[in-house]
Design a protein that fits this description.
The relative contact order is 0.15. The protein starts with a helix and ends with a helix. The longest helix is centred in the C-terminal third of the chain and has 23 residues, at about 275-300. The chain is globular and about 55 Å long. About 40% of the residues lie in helices and about 20% in strands. By secondary structure, it is α/β, with parallel strands linked by helices. The chain folds into 2 domains: about 20-50 and about 280-370, Aspartate Aminotransferase, domain 1, CATH 3.90.1150; about 55-275, Aspartate Aminotransferase, domain 2 (3-Layer(aba) Sandwich), CATH 3.40.640. Bound molecules: pyridoxal-5'-phosphate (PLP). Pyridoxal-5'-phosphate binds near residues 176, 227 and 240.
Length: about 375
Amino acid sequence: MNTSYEKWIKQKIVKLQAIDCYSAGVTPELLAKQIGVGISQVVKLNFNENLFVNRGKQTALMKELADEIDLRMYPEDEVPKLVKKISRYIDVPEEYIIVSNAGDELIDRTIRLFIEKGDVAVSFSPSFAIPRLCVKRQEGEYVTIPLKEDFQIDVKSMLSQFSDKTRLLYLCSPNNPTSNQMKPQDIETLAKAFPGIVILDEAYGEFADYSFVPRIREFPNMIILRTFSKAFGLAMLRLGYAVANPELAKITTEKAPLPYPVSGFSIRMGIKMLENMEIMKTAVASLKSERGKLIKALNQINGIKAFDSQADFILINTKKNADEVYEKLLKRGIMLKKWGKILQYENCFRLTVGLPEMNTKLIEALKKIQSD
Ligand SMILES: Cc1ncc(COP(=O)(O)O)c(C=O)c1O
C-alpha cells in the first residue's frame, strides 16, 4: 500500500481515537440477554424518555403519515410547515426558529459553527455531557464551575471566567442531572455579561415552571434549545428546534450545512404532534403528577434522598455505594443512570419518571437493596 497513505492514516486514527465520545453503556436487549429475561421485563429508567405519551395515539398518527407521505421525494416543503406550527406553539415569530436533527445535533452544529481551536467554553458542573465533547473535538477548552450546594449557579465564579477568549456559555435549565431550573436572574446576569454565544438548553422546558423563550428578544446572543424527544415523546425520530434572534437563526439554519439535514418523516410527525397537542399536554400532566408521588415514595425509603424535580427525571442519592446499588438493580432488570459523586453527595443516580408499574418495581427493589 502507498506509504504516504499508511503513515497519514495511522496518525489520523490515533488523533481520532483520542476524541472523547458518548458511551451509553449496556442496552436493554443486552441486559435482558445477560440476566435471562424477556425485553418487556426490563425497567428502563436511564434515558429520560417519556413513556406517558399515549403510544396508541402516536401510532395512529404514524399510520396517517404512511398514507400521506411519499418517501421517494426529498423533504423540500417540510421545514417551513414545521416552523409555522412551532411558531404558533411557542408564540415566537417564524424567523426566530431553527429546526434541527434533535437537541444533540443543534448543540453540535452551534459549536461547529461558532467555536474554533483555542476558544474557551464555560459551563457549570455537573451538567449535560455533549457540549464538552463537541468543544473538545473543535480543539477548544471547556471550563466548568461547580454548582453551589443547592444546585444553583455560582454566578460570581462564572463571571470571573469571562474574557475575550470565552465564546460559548452552556447553561442547562432544567439541568441534567440535578433536575432543577436555574434562577432566572442568574441566567439573565450571565447571558447579558457573556461575550459570546449562550446556549440555554431547555430540553426539559415543558416539565418546568418557566421558560426564557418568551424573552428571546432581550438576548441577541442566546440560542434556546428545545426538543421533541422529551415532552412530545419522539426520541426515536431525532427532532428538535431552537429559538434565537433572526440573524443567528438564519446563519445556523443556512450553514447546517447539508441541504436536508432532518428526516421528512420526523418533521411531518412533529407537525402531527403539534396538531394534536393534547397528547403532549396529557402526558406532561400525568408525568408531573407521577413525579410528585415518586419523589415522596423514594424519600420514604431508608437511606435514599430524592431531590425535587422540574424535569422528567429525578436525582437521588443513596447511602449505599453507587456501584453496588447499580449492579443489584441491573440484576433485577432495572436500568438507572449512575452518576456517583455529585458535589457533596457521594452515590447519585438519575432516574426517569417511569409509568406507575415501573416505579413500583423500582421502589420495591430499592427498599430491598437498602435493607440488605
Ligand atoms: C439537557 C439535554 N439536552 C439535550 C438533550 C438532547 O436530546 P435530543 O438530542 O434527543 O433532542 C438531552 C438528552 O437527554 C438532554 O438531557
